[in-house]
Amino acid sequence: MCIAFSHIRAPNLVLLFALLAVMIQPAHALKDGVYKPGKLVIAGKPMRCGKVKTLVSSKYWMVGGSIPGLIGLNPRKLKKYSRIEQWMIYTHECGHQRRGKSERKADCWASKTGHRQGWLKRKGLKRICTTLRSDPAKGPYPNGRTRCKIMKRCF
Q1: Total domain count for the chain?
Q2: N or C, which end of the chain has less CB nearby within 10 Å?
Q3: Phi, psi of 51 (to 5 degrees)
Q4: Angle at Cα 125 formed by Cα 119 and Cα 130, nearest 5°?
Q5: How many CA atoms lie within 13 A of 39 on its CB side?
Q6: Considering only CA atoms, which of 72, 69, 112 is closest in space to residue 88?
Q7: pLDDT means over runs of 10, the chain (155 residues)
């Protein structure tokens, strides 16, 4: 046994390692299925969007999407992003549940919520903006630079 853990009793050590395993669970470890509110864990963080369920499917064509009452996520696509980006993707989709179809309003809501909850800091927002920087405007989505400006303004 490691000296650092020598003062921890065996049952507590098992619990500690179980918690660590859950906390470092990558997005691709998400199992396909429907998750009840509060049961989805992404990169160690329990995700919740009120009473909204989440459908996790490796066959879903986008990284994330939202229809009233349901958030959809593709774990294979989600795993390509950093932890902060994964949380932002889920929170953006939750933003659609709260603010409707507008991509701008969902981005703003997600930025405010992440900041208020304490997991989105300026450094994380900068990383998100770096990822979005070269995205062109497509369908209802503004280009990446515009989305970043919206998130920074709402932060």
Answers
A1: 1
A2: N
A3: -95, 15
A4: 140
A5: 13
A6: 112
A7: 39 38 50 96 96 97 96 97 97 98 98 98 97 94 96 97
